[in-house]
Design brief:
The protein is an alpha+beta fold. It has a single domain (2-111), classed as Lipocalin (Beta Barrel), CATH 2.40.128.520. It has one helix spanning 2-20; strands spanning 26-29, 35-41, 44-49, 58-65, 68-75, 80-89, 92-99, 103-111. Strands 1-2-3-4-5-6-7-8 form an eight-stranded antiparallel β-barrel. The model is unreliable at 3-18 (pLDDT under 50). Pfam families: DUF2147 (PF09917).
Length: 112
Amino acid sequence: MIRVTILAAALLVSASAAFADEPIVGNWKTVEGDTAAITPCADSYCVTLKTGKYAGRQIGKMQGKDGSYTGELTDPSEDKTYSGSGSVSGNTVRMKGCVLKIFCKSQTWTRL
């Protein structure tokens, strides 16, 4: 029983480490000047505002790896959720939200 528990804990730690190594994980400055934290959550990455008018609100959930991610993004000012994507290049992430994949808006955030 102890071996099974130790093995399960080791697998959980290595899975968490793999998520933490992804380039999207970290704190980002949004276009509005707020801080958004992107952290591993279950099998995804959650985007949560840490500062500003909507601090504490989760505004996205994405899956992917190696700098390319897809999922959903929410505009907190309108409380509308869109199909989203994120792509990391160096110290920037380009976040894009779309309606019907044809009406899209994008923002570039910088790493803090």
